Amino acid sequence: MKILNILKKEILENLRDKKSMFLMTLFPMLLITILGTVFSGNFASTINIPEINVMYFINKDVKIDKNFRDFTKEIEKTMKVNFKETKDEKDALEKISNGKTDVYIKIPNDKKIYIYENNLRAFNSQLVSTLMDTLVDKVNMTKEVISKNPRALSKIKVNTSPNFINIKTIEGKDSPRGIDYYAVTMLTMTILYGTAVGAMSIASEIKRRTYRRLICSNTSPLKILFSKIVASFLVIAFQSFLIYLFSKYILGTNWGNNKLALVSVVASLIFMAVSAGVCIANTIKNEGVMSIIIYMFVPILTFLGGGYVPLEPIGNKMLNSISNISPLKWSNDAIFKIIFGNNLSIFGTTILINIGAGVLFLLIAILFPRKDVI
User: Which residues cross the membrane (predicted)?
Assistant: First the structure.
């Protein structure tokens, strides 16, 4: 019963706080509208395939030597892909490492093809890998026909200029517009600012000297902690839902069809943010230091997560590597994959990162509390 009373009190306090409600709902709505409109030109519905640099080594004794060379010539005609043969593997790998080359293909024999990718420009390397799969499938199909019915091979029409690529324009509904992009990133940024909600739920009780009263009423610190987490979670979830409704029904943003996966990612991020806030308030006594930590790190993590601008087009290898430390990077990527393609490839990893980080924050809050909350 005491837990329910704390929950009710905490939720009502947050909902009645006009300043907090403005910052956590109306302000993000305003940002989505402004940024989505201003940067709409940066999210064209047609994707231009960038120039791709590929280095390769192929043993001239392998059976697919001619197939591969025909393959490279045809691709160079139809796409901005530059193939360069090399015998210096060390140089090729070094260029992969420093970003001068996107892909290095090594074909030493008929049994294996090695592809070394540069994750700096993931789209480029993924495209080359897909094209190589096309070549391998074509060669394997020919081998299968020869092994089972060699005569049938003569009946198969061979295109002397094979078309490996079928380029199609991607409609806007299958790729994020500016308004779609910022609806997601401003939502996740707002959730991360929910760290302050979790922190203040503890700090305000201590400041008003009501925390000790709760302890004296036979309410354990763990129950208080649990109540604060649940209440803060529900408040941020409600605020996030308002942002979702506004963006979807007023601005017409695309949130995809897999709502369960979407809600799961958002819920796990809220849990992590609230847990981080409670951890900060439960371990750091100085309220000024708490504010500095929250309001300094949230913008940094938002930037690294691509909250303000997408980072991949910048093409900075170090920046892209560092961005992986931001939970928003994983959450934003997972949400975009879910919305545009129902791709769950990093869904599980994102949930584990968010929940794992949340549990870690809670353990720190419980094991290393400040003296006045024991």
Answer: 21-44, 181-203, 224-247, 259-280, 292-311, 346-368
**Most confident stretch, 23-32, 58-67, 78-87, 311-320:** 23-32
Determine the length of the chain.
Answer: 374
Angle at CA 295, nearest 5°, toward 278 and 291?
55
231-280: pLDDT as tens digits: 999 999 999 999 999 999 999 999 999 999 999 999 999 999 999 999 99
Using only C-alpha atoms, what is the Rg of the chain?
27
What's the distance, CA 174 to chain centroid?
A: 17
d(Cα 183, Cα 246) in Å, to the nearest integer? 10
- Tokens 């009501």, residue located: 210
Q: Over range 180-198, report the average pLDDT.
A: 93
Residue 15 is encoded by which pair of tokens?
């909902």
Which amino acid appears at position 125 of this protein? S
Distance CA 91, CA 114 (A): 16
What angle in degrees, to the nearest 10, is found between the helix axes of 221-245 and 27-38?
Answer: 40
pLDDT in tens, 94-103: 888 777 888 8
Give the strands of the sheet with 52-58, arranged side by side. 81-85, 52-58, 103-107, 114-117
Q: How many CA atoms lie within 13 A of 196 on its CB side?
A: 20
Query: Three-class SS of residue 117?
Result: strand
Give CA–CA dist 248/241, Å, rounded.
10
pTM above 0.70, yes or no: no
Fold adopted by 52-168:
abc type-2 transporter like fold (3.40.1710)
Going from N- to C-terminal start, the domains of the chain cover 2-43+174-373, 52-168
